[in-house]
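Issue 218. Parser rejects a valid record. Input:
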Amino acid sequence: MGYIHVEIETVQNSKRPGKPCGDVVLFDRTQASTTIVVCDGLGSGIKANIAATMCASRLLELFRNDFSMREGFSCMVKTMNEARGTDLPYSVFSVMRILNDGSATVLSYDMPGPIFISRRLATVLPQHTLTLENALIGESNCHIEPGEGLIVVSDGITQAGLGTTLRNGWEIEGVAKHITGLLTEGLLLREIPNYVHRRALELWGPRSGDDCTVTLAGCRWGKTVNILTGPPSDPSKDKSVAARFLMTEGEKVICGGTTASIVANYRGVKLLMEPDPQSLLAPPKYQIDGIDLVTEGAVTLNQVYNILDEDPAEFEEESGVTQLCELLNGADRINFQVGVAQNPASEHIAFRQRGILSRMKVVPLLAEKLRNAGKLVVIEYI
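Output the parser choked on:
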């Protein structure tokens, strides 16, 4: 079974050009789910942006601290109810959570309802109402397959045209009908937010009447890269680690000569050195039949960290470092299996003098950079 990736696309504009948008979208990925928070701060400009940012950040922090979706949502509803009508920051919000099996839940606090997009049709999801902290909350549930998605918009979209071209504004049903038309024309799922946003601006006319935000959570089959680096702490685990790595789904990368030897020995094949290395900067590669890429360890990982977000067009040569950068940039999920066996060489003063971090230090830094790029990163120490 492949990895279902939730691709997040947001298109938005502020009510007043050059001012901060009062709508804020943040998300978080875990092994179990993807959570997207869409917040609409009261008013517009910097005050609304601060309110929405505080709300979105607080919600994600609650979820990261093991609050359930409903518990975290209830805490924020209570805070906003207390802030309503005062000078305190106030925001309405929706939370989408999509599990790895495609099961999805959307909770909405004074926000337009979510739209479910299948391959041919867009429909407003029915909401059942529940009471949380003396406020009425809308809850929607559905199942999303690859090629389908959910859209949440701020009221700047549903109120587009209000009092001018449309008596009651565009409304969420009008948005869904427009998306169905786009699907009929053959538009790709990821292109829909742009077209919805563009139509809302047309309905508003010369001046947008509010901050406008369209956020899509679209499901597709994701690309996984598995990286094994460093031998396990217990040599007796070498065979089991190698066997489990070879069974993983997705592209396989080994970083480290000793690690590569463990896998080659388990498979009963030779570990071959790159016959004619072309790079003067990157360490040479190895070759193992059935493994997509085999490189040296700490130096390669350090160089990847240094150039991961550089323009590939600027790379002057192809090497294990540039190939690993390409694999990581093209991946949606990266699984690191990091061996914790002591390697005196990587802790030697000569390594530190040249600024080469050990794998135990560079892997978390690399993971942080990949997460900031919107990827799911899982680290397992062995």
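Fixed in the parser; the record now loads. The first strand starts at residue 4 and ends at 13.
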